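Progress narrative, work stream C.
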Amino acid sequence: DEPSQADLHVHVGTPDSFRPAPLHPPERKFVFYTVAEATRVPAYWVRALNQCDEVWAPSQFAAQALVHSGVSRPVQVIPLGVDCRSPAILRPHHSDGEPFTVMWQGSRLMAYRDGQPSDGDRKGGFQLERAFRRANLPNSRLILKYLPIEGSSYDFRVGPVWYICKSMSVVEIDELDAVTDVFIWPTMGEGFGMTPLEKLAKGIPAFATYWSGPREYLKDFPLRRLTPSGLDHVRFNGAPARMARIDEAALIELMKYCHEHRQELPALRSTLFDSARDKWDYRHVLRPPLLAAIKRICDH
């Protein structure tokens, strides 16, 4: 009845907002389920994580970053997964006049740094928009779906680009997914990267940066890889780290490839859905290690 009386406390999130008292009585077990999107995490994260009995991470990439940053408590990998009970969203072959549709989702499309427009978050929506315009694909469009972080919602189209800056329901996202040919996500780094896996579980060809968390599930899908050209030195969450760099030319080449093979892509959809169901349904990939971890820590 009272959270403080639970035998096991699991804090899901990063240590930024973590306050151990009063939710962590010394006689109770305490676990952090957290992520690392770059190769290092801040020292104050490490100090908080080292107060726990265990640390859980959603990918080998995240677990290694935590250990390399100095986390000394046991780190266990408990992957995320998707619910694959729903059927794939199968898109029919293109009819005459129907646009080839590329989709991207993120929190923030763009920001201004030193007066110049740049990507608003690490997921590369602004870079993808530039690449899409340069690719100049015939009869195509780009859907950019992001959130009204500054409090202003809008939904409008300028030429072949559809800007959707608002919160949407699951049903509304399904409607967008139903008209999407490919999903492209040139992220700099992810602890896991749920969005591309959710698209793949609907049968949508999803191309995320083949690095960090997404690499661990992308290897199970028969799709072309969006390989980074290198790793950049960055400061992420205040810590010096390295993150992936995707060249604009690689995005242009990927979109041109998908456009040229647009009549063949629908045939992949059932294969993508089957792979997600067989290998990345949460009942198979998340539940067993989670239950084993709970039993181990509570029986210790």
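Work stream C, second folded protein:
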Amino acid sequence: MTTKFNKVLSGFFSEAKTVCGSEGLYQSIFYHHARGQYRQNQILREEPAEGGKVDFVLEDVDRVYAVELKAGANGHRNSLANMKEVESKGKGLQHDLAKLDSLHRKFSKEVESWLVCVDLAALGLAFSRVDLEKYSRLSNSQGTHFAYVSQLEDEYQTWRVGKRTAWKLETPQCKSQADAWHLIGGEVVWHDYFAEVARDNGPECSHVGLFYHVLRRAGLLHRQVASEVFFNCNRYGTRQYYVPDFAVFENEFVGQFQIYGNNRRTVENDQFKLPVLVSILEFKGGDAFRAKSITKRNEEIVADVEKLAQQIKPRIEAAPSFQQRPNSLAKPTFTMVVTDSDPRLQPTMEALSAKHKGTVNIRWLGEA
């Protein structure tokens, strides 16, 4: 394993071990550490492959690293448990291995493929030792390296050509180097973000991951920021949750972003999130969004802003857990981020800014 890719894995696993969130969160953490070793234009997201898309492709000088990530809480479920369940349907590990293998025929450089797994203790561990032996052996037999961390252990493991190696985890930074309120409300982070996102022609998840990276680079901790955070807003006992694209929290938040605990659907973890919530953000952009008609794009932007203003904001502020916020803490901000610079969006952006002034902030690449 080269030093650069080893550093990406080590940094990723060390932070992934301490938080519980959606798969999008773990993808953002991985992207952040990849950016520590690779340039922006060396990292591809959702790379098309036979049978689907591969999560990450890292282009090094002498080879390409293809990475499929298996991590995250799918509602109240561990994604690794889901992977085991769908094996019989042809959509589990074998499907992912086939996607990775197809990239060997796509790139002229040597392709080194990896399956990277995070097992979440808060949801109940999915992989037994027998499972690890089974899936690592299956991956290696088809030319894919296997990497795994359990949140209950102090090391992560890799399997290359049948050989297991244990690696000691790092200690993540535990003190924030920046004020979340100042970053989100200021202009420096937005200037940096839009300057970089203007060079990113990838999918929307890439733009969200880039925002995560910019906030982390500015000094926020891995337990303060996350994509796809579930909020119940006191609707426990139902399956109706609100899942905005991104959320930012105060420094003291513990990083339990997701619904969790013993496979129960009704665990009330809003009580940990709402008292320290700094900001909620929705994103619109990416290659699939830009491929739509201008009418459809305008409609979707309006719908997301209205969702922020009429659904998410009032329900969050009415939730009992929200009332536990310290009196000294400001109310969270709600922001619509549009990374499509098409000038035909300008009338809609101006109308939304005027209509929702003081309620929803509008950040648009076209006026950055």
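Residues 11 and 33 are 6 Å apart (CA to CA). No further action is required on this item.
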